[in-house]
Amino acid sequence: MLKGIPEIISPELLKYLCEMGHSDRLVIADGNFPTHSVGKDAHIIRMDGHGVCEILDAILKLFPLDTYDPHPVSIMEKVPGDTVATPIWDEFKEIVSKYDTRKDAIGSIERFKFYDEARKAYLIIATSEKALYGNIMLQKGVV
């Protein structure tokens, strides 16, 4: 056991977070995200039974966001014409604002471009999140 590490952060996840360098990206994916096909070149950690928001909050306690990028956090945009509600985005904003004071730290990326960017991620965390468009990408900064 270590002090100050959130219980939800496994030793394997902590290892990958430590290995990541400046500008490396991680994706916390909802339950519908094609984690294994998109993440062929990424490290993948399954965190079944957990939602994106609880994982996001725990990671941001340890993970510096990139201060050189105006939007170090990205969410997947809705497909044009999709009218599904996305209340999880408000939760994302609330959590990110606890760790980053920029009002515009969160940007959005068109769905298929999000997949393309996720293919370059160092780490993808697969969750049991049921919220649609509940995917979020973080870009690591420096300490």
Number of helices: 5
Number of domains: 1
Range of strand content:
15-25%
User: Under the CATH scheme, which architecture would be assigned?
Assistant: 3-Layer(aba) Sandwich
Would you tell me the overall average pLDDT? 97
Radius of gyration over all CA atoms, rounded: 14 Å
**The CATH fourth-level homologous superfamily:** RbsD-like domain
Shape: globular
CATH topology: RbsD-like fold
- Contiguous low-pLDDT stretches (5 residues minimum) are none
Cα separation of the termini: 23 Å
Number of strands: 6
Q: What is the CATH first-level class name?
A: Alpha Beta
Task: Give the ordered list of helices and strands.
Answer: HEHEHEHEHEE
Helical percent range?
A: 25-40%
Strand order of the largest sheet: 2-5-1-6-3-4
Structural class: alpha/beta
Main beta-sheet strand count, sense and barrel state: 6 strands, mixed
Q: Explain this structure to me?
A:
- Pfam families: RbsD_FucU (PF05025).
- One of its GO terms (biological process) is fucose metabolic process.
- There is one protein chain.
- With 143 residues, the chain is α/β, with parallel strands linked by helices.
- The protein has a single domain, classed as 3-Layer(aba) Sandwich (RbsD-like fold).
- It is 29% helix and 19% strand.
- Helix 3 packs parallel to helix 4.
- The radius of gyration is 14 Å and the shape is globular.
- The two termini are 23 Å apart.
